[in-house]
């Protein structure tokens, strides 16, 4: 049934944006169904309340496939309580304060993440954030926007 609702929302052009805008970033990601690893990581890192907060936030959200492409065991290690600080660092590297829509982006622009480091946006071959490609831009949420990316981006250690 859950997948049926998602498929119905995706096929109804007017329903998808209205549906997404009523929910915060976390609930929008949960409902999308392709961010179960990201949602589990956000829960393990204790960031749910933050990303359900007022915002606004811009989230570069890696898909489940992006997490699956990491070296074997990486996600499992990051989800361990003793690695919470590293997990928080990686996840907050995917979040920029404010609501940045794709139309606000410029080539070679730099944006400071919640983690504190900058990410670079490249518009030469589609929209890239560091070495990840934005595959679906501008998913509106009540407290910001989600841009779906095809790779987990890592802050410099």
TrEMBL record:
PROSITE patterns: FAS1. The keyword Kinase does not apply. Residues 22-153 form the FAS1 domain. Pfam families: Fasciclin. InterPro entries: Adhesion/Biosynth-related, FAS1_dom_sf, FAS1_domain. One of its GO terms (cellular component) is extracellular space. Residues 1-20 form the signal peptide. Keywords: Signal. This is Putative surface protein with fasciclin (FAS1) repeats. It comes from Silicimonas algicola.
């Amino acid at each position: 049934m859950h997948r049926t609702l998602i498929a119905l929302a995706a096929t109804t052009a007017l329903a998808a944006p209205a549906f997404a805008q009523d929910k915060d970033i976390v609930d929008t990601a949960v409902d999308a169904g392709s961010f179960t690893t990201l949602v589990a990581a956000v829960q393990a890192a204790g960031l749910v309340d933050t990303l359900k907060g007022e915002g606004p936030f811009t989230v570069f959200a890696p898909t489940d496939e992006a997490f699956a492409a990491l070296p074997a065991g990486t996600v499992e290690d990051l989800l361990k309580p003793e690695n919470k600080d590293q997990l928080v660092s990686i996840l907050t590297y995917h979040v920029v304060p404010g609501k940045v829509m794709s139309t606000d982006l410029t080539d070679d622009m730099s944006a400071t993440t919640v983690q504190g480091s900058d990410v670079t946006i490249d518009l030469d071959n589609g929209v890239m954030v560091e070495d990840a490609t934005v595959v679906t831009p501008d998913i509106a949420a009540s407290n910001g926007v989600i841009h779906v990316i095809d790779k987990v981006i890592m802050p410099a250690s």
